[in-house]
Inverse folding.
């Protein structure tokens, strides 16, 4: 495709008058959208959707690669459409399976033969089998599995098993071509939805949102997920919204089960709501729901059955087709089947518990000679299988009117809002004996064959047609009622008016809103099948879609269901960010140009990267690029604003185009201020000005834009790549035109804001930056990566530095008179209220240097040199340590671990440190031992705090003994004398003031570190919150009371 899919007549609204004038009447966003054809490029992808109920059978994951990725396992004998395909002329969605054909011939030549149930040998067919499109020709793989766990086991029927999802992800990733990226992965008990995209498609996908809805056994205020649906919404190319729903509806053949399936569908449909879409930094007001997407695909084990016909009759007639005995006039070739007429496959691999995927069909007649056979006339017309009463398709056509799903769609009870399905030309997908081809349920229940597994789809056009049809019916009903009220004579006159006013082009009564078994019937000579259907998306683009393949894989025998696949071709437009940014800037400039010249006007000049370089400047419309920006590192750019109009100009900065005039809200990572340069003692300086500036014509003013990422939630979002450093600031001129200044920066991935599970997977040497560079991608660190250390190296580096600096501070106090340790401030240097050096000019610079050193896995003390006073270094390193601990989402004592500690020691915050310390320590460590990496980090940190306490507020052995012998109620109570001396043989003096300082320091340190490392739900009530914080303090405090080494 060489041009955009956008149809100007459909995607654009009529704009009266001159083009230049019309731009003036639209807001910036609408003006940019009007030029969207300039910043999009057309794309075509293939979407392959597969659904399979694996019935909890072992070994089913081994078959996944063959049918879903490689496209093997489809049987032309059991699909009327595949049987009629001309492989040489068909689209590239179906091709000859040369590998299977070659293997079959080799097997026949070597004497390896298939066997029937009776043990009679038959030869593999010599006709090549088919292979569906797969491999790297698919842009988007969407897999829906059901019953990946055994739902008959209570422990698996209601809870998610992470091992199950890992098994299927590993199987699919091993089969996919190199470079395919996981887009979405969601498990709901037995349901699993996996979406993978090719490298080219993955980079155009954004706004992924997944919702799980349980419809199974009722529980308190909800339903279990043993039945339900999982839906993922993606935005493709910033233009096309796709929704994929994998479901497992209620089972059963009776009317109650059928009603429950309809209820399941409606609950999933109404309860599924996605997160709002964010495009270009603009968040939509509300999240989408099902029906708001451009293309929707609903698949899974819908469990709708074939009713009104005895199951035995269905089994018998389909078995005749499976054995090739339905057409009595057709000459039988090869050896006959057994009485059951079923081919059972045996796997040569004795270790495998599931049958292999090899075709076992009746062989050709040995006496058949290809040379004697007369070739058919290539111009001969192939009869329509629907018209051949002996064909498989004719039999399927007779069964489909009894399909419950089609009946529910016609009755508008389920899947009636525009949903449709490809032509069903294949055998029912349920229920088969495991390990067989064509043998339906031979168990005692002998369930009737049914198309339980389905793949439905609809477009925005389908939804609009359905809604229009409903609206037409309402209006027709109203008119009917009005005519009845007017009387028969008047009604007759109106009837004549309606008759002559009839316009067939506007009549939607013939629109097929429900399933029609003949609507999409296969016609080999129908060129319309090759035509893509046009769909206008929500964003106004003209996309096109076509269903290429809809069939089952009958040769897959490891489950009692057969896998089902659909292949779609989708043409869509994808936004090119660079082109859109250019158009954005041009539109902003054009809006400025067409404004009334008599109104205030200003010109903005953006200084270059080095604000001191006056020769490196750009126009404000081209935006500001801060380059690389890291956590707690400031980046500053300056602007020069001049009044180039003829009147006074009053202006101020505004951050978002969508906010009202009376609300000014700046992004958390950006700050703006106006300044004026002046000379002072032969050096340039700046003085801040008010937030709103008034300039007379010809005057100028400077502005400073500062990027500073410090918000912890923002840091986590940037690390996970769910947010970007992009924004647009507006210089709003009163009674004048707004000036739009795009701002962007490149985020430097940080070790701050990451979980402990992520950090232990960072290799040694180079830190988080080296890992990101090696993986060539950012985002969160997968838990599937190898664990390289038992505790984060950043924690080790910081605690080691803190211990070393504590020793130096104590040593400096002994040698230097001015280096006095502030022992009168409990918790120093961890209590920020006790810090003495944070107001120094280079404090932020030193802190940023330490953060950068941790990200690059460099020694902290080498970054902050010896020329910096020891006490200052001590406070800064301690501040960074606490910041690091606070930014860990899961902390060191995670929420689940905290719940266990709180349950085991409910009164941990009662202050009884000495009496039950050892018992409480043992309990806490036993609980933490369930999470070894967290346990090691916790013990590591407690050891550091204790060593710092022994350096800063030391006690003698006698003082430790005296402290440990006290009753809990006496702790913290001062004696009448600050120093109590014990007399007697060998008695040593005990400093009561030192003991009180130690108690106060331990309590304050435990309070600080308790809230920094523990993660627990915090009540809104102040008293309850204080109780939780006391418990957190108690957990740490019991580990700080240890004897002097």
């Amino acid at each position: 495709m060489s041009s955009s899919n956008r149809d100007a007549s459909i995607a654009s609204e009529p704009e009266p008058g001159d083009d230049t004038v019309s731009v003036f009447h639209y807001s910036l966003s609408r003006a940019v959208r009007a030029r969207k054809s300039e910043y999009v490029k057309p794309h075509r992808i293939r979407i392959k959707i597969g659904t399979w109920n694996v019935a909890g059978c072992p070994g089913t994951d081994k078959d996944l690669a063959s049918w879903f990725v490689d496209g093997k396992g489809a049987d032309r004998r059991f699909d009327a459409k595949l049987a009629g395909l001309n492989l040489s002329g068909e689209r590239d969605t179906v091709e000859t399976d040369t590998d299977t054909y070659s293997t079959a011939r080799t097997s026949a030549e070597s004497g390896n033969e298939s066997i029937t149930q009776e043990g009679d040998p038959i030869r593999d067919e010599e006709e090549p089998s088919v292979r569906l499109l797969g491999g790297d020709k698919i842009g988007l793989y969407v897999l829906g599995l059901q019953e990946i766990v055994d739902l008959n086991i209570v422990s698996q029927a209601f809870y998610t098993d992470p091992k199950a999802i890992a098994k299927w992800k590993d199987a699919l990733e091993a089969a996919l071509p190199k470079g395919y990226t996981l887009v979405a992965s969601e498990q709901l008990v037995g349901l699993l939805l996996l979406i993978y995209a090719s490298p080219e498609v993955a980079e155009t996908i954004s706004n992924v949102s997944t919702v799980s809805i349980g419809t199974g056994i009722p529980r308190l205020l909800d339903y279990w997920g043993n039945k339900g649906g999982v839906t993922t919404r993606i935005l493709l190319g910033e233009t096309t919204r796709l929704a994929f729903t994998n479901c497992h509806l209620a089972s059963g053949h009776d009317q109650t089960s059928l009603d429950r399936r309809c209820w399941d569908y409606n609950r999933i449909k109404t309860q599924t709501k996605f997160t709002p879409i964010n495009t270009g930094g603009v968040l939509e007001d509300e999240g989408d729901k099902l029906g708001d997407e451009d293309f929707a695909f609903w698949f899974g084990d819908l469990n709708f059955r074939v009713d009104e016909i005895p199951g035995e009759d269905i089994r018998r007639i389909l078995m005749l087709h499976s054995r090739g005995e339905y057409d009595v006039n057709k000459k039988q070739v090869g050896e006959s089947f057994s009485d059951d007429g079923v081919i059972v496959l045996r796997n040569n691999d004795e270790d495998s518990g599931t049958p292999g995927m090899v075709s076992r069909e009746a062989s050709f007649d040995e006496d058949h000679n290809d040379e004697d056979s007369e070739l058919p006339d290539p111009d001969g017309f192939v009869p329509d299988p629907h018209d051949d009463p002996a064909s498989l398709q004719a039999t399927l056509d007779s069964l489909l009117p009894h399909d419950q799903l089609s009946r529910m769609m016609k009755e508008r009870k389920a899947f009636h809002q525009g949903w449709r399905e490809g032509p069903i030309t294949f055998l029912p997908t349920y229920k088969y004996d495991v390990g067989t081809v064509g043998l339906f349920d031979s168990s005692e229940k002998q369930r009737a064959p049914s198309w339980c597994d389905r793949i439905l789809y609809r477009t925005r056009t389908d939804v609009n047609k359905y809604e229009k049809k409903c609206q037409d019916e309402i209006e027709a009903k109203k008119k009917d009622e009005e005519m009845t009220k007017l009387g028969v004579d008047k009604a007759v006159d109106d009837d004549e008016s309606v008759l002559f006013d009839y316009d067939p082009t506007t009549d939607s009564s013939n629109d097929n809103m429900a399933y029609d078994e003949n609507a999409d019937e296969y016609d080999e000579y129908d060129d319309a099948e090759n035509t893509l259907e046009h769909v206008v998306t929500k964003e106004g683009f003209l996309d096109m879609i076509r269903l290429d393949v809809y069939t089952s894989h009958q040769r897959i025998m490891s489950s009692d269901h057969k896998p089902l696949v659909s292949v779609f071709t989708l043409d869509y437009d994808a936004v090119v960010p660079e082109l859109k940014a250019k158009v954005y800037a041009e539109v902003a400039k054009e809006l400025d140009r067409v404004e009334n010249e008599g109104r205030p006007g200003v010109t903005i000049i953006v200084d270059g990267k080095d604000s001191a370089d006056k020769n490196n400047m750009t126009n404000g419309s081209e935006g500001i690029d801060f380059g690389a920006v890291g956590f707690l590192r400031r980046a500053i750019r300056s602007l020069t604003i001049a009044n180039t109009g003829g009147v006074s100009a009053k202006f101020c900065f505004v951050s978002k185009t969508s906010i009202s005039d009376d609300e000014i809200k700046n992004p958390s990572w950006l700050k703006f201020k106006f300044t004026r340069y002046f000379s002072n003692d032969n050096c340039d300086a700046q003085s801040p000005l008010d937030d709103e500036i008034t300039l007379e014509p010809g005057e100028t003013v400077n502005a400073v834009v500062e990027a500073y990422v410090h918000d912890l939630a923002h840091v986590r979002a940037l690390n996970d790549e769910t947010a970007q450093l992009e924004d647009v600031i507006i210089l709003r001129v009163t009674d004048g035109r707004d000036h739009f200044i795009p701002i962007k920066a490149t985020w430097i991935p940080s070790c701050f804001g990451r979980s402990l599970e992520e950090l232990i997977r960072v290799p040694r040497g180079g830190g988080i930056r080296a890992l990101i560079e090696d993986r060539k991608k950012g985002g969160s660190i997968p838990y599937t990566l190898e664990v390289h250390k038992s505790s984060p190296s950043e924690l080790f580096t910081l605690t080691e530095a803190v211990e070393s600096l504590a020793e130096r501070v104590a040593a400096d106090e002994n040698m230097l008179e001015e280096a006095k340790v502030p022992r009168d401030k409990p918790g120093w240097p961890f209590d920020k209220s006790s810090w003495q050096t944070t107001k120094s000019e280079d404090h932020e610079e030193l802190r940023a240097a330490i953060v950068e050193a941790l990200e690059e896995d460099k020694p902290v003390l080498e970054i902050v040199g010896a020329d910096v006073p020891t006490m200052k270094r001590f406070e800064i390193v301690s501040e960074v340590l606490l910041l690091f601990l606070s930014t860990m989402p899961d902390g060191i004592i995670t929420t689940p671990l905290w719940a266990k500690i709180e349950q085991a020691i409910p009164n941990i915050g009662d202050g009884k440190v000495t009496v039950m310390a050892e018992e409480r320590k043992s309990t806490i460590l036993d609980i933490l031992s369930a999470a070894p990496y967290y346990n090691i980090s916790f013990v590591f940190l407690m050891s550091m705090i204790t060593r710092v306490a022994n350096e800063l507020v030391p006690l003698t052995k006698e003082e430790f003994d005296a402290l440990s012998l006290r009753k809990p109620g006496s702790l913290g109570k001062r004696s009448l004398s600050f120093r109590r001396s014990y007399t007697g043989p060998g008695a040593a003096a005990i400093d009561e003031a030192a003991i009180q300082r130690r108690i106060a320091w331990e309590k304050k340190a435990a309070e600080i570190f308790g809230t920094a490392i523990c993660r627990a739900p915090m009540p809104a009530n102040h008293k309850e919150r204080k109780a939780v914080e006391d418990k957190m303090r108690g957990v740490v405090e019991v580990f700080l009371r240890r004897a002097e080494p």
